[in-house]
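agent> fetching stored inputs for the fe (ii) ion docking request
agent> found them:
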Amino acid sequence: MSVLAKEYMSDEEQQNPKAHQAIGAMGNLTAQDRLKEQQVTMSSPRRRYSIGAKILFASLDAIYGKPRTLSKFKVLELVARVPYQSWEQVAYIAITHISDRISTARRIHDRVIEARQQQDNEQWHLLLLEELIADRNIKENWLLYTALPQLIAFLYYQISVIMYIIKPKWSYRLNADFEDHAEHEYMILVDENPDWETTPFVSVLAPDYGTYESLADLFRQIGYDERMHKHESEYYLMEPRFK
Ligand SMILES: [Fe+2]
Ligand SMILES: [Fe+2]
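agent> prediction call returned; pasting tokens
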């Protein structure tokens, strides 16, 4: 269980963490809480993005346009999983090299578990978006929305691995920027779609990700998840190397 996920869990959930993990969203918020969290995001300044993050966001805007569309968010989610995959991979290699120091290996393994939980959370976001895109019959260009995102994800994976090996702080900073961007973009997306307040959330993924009062409520939860991811990367910015 991640440090931050624990912080946001009720006493009951902490005693029975499996019950929490059955729902793929972070925290245990009510619709009212989620509304407040959206206001928190909207009134919070964005992080001061690094040059790398600015290039990444500008490139995505250049390719997919500035308007916030479900298809563009799908691309963001495909890319969002990548740093966690790269961290997991590097952490496994580190464990192999220091397996004689059990307590250190154990601590690194905790990071592997956290990276996996974040990946799973991003995976639910991706699947929810894919479901919405399919339900709405939104047509997507295969090259732009299937092939190119995979190429971007491949390159981003290599960059994440290299940064994480040379200086983990770089990778955590880039991810904190990416998650901050995602948090704000999702909360603005909700604001831009007032009809979502009364659009019911119906999904085959509800048993995994939870039930929500409306589509707006769902996207507020996703935005909140992104903030938790950001906090986790910010937390590791203070102690980036394995100890
Ligand atoms: Fe996400
Ligand atoms: Fe995220």
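agent> quick read of the result: Residues 1-5, 17-22 have pLDDT under 50 and may be disordered.
agent> awaiting further instructions
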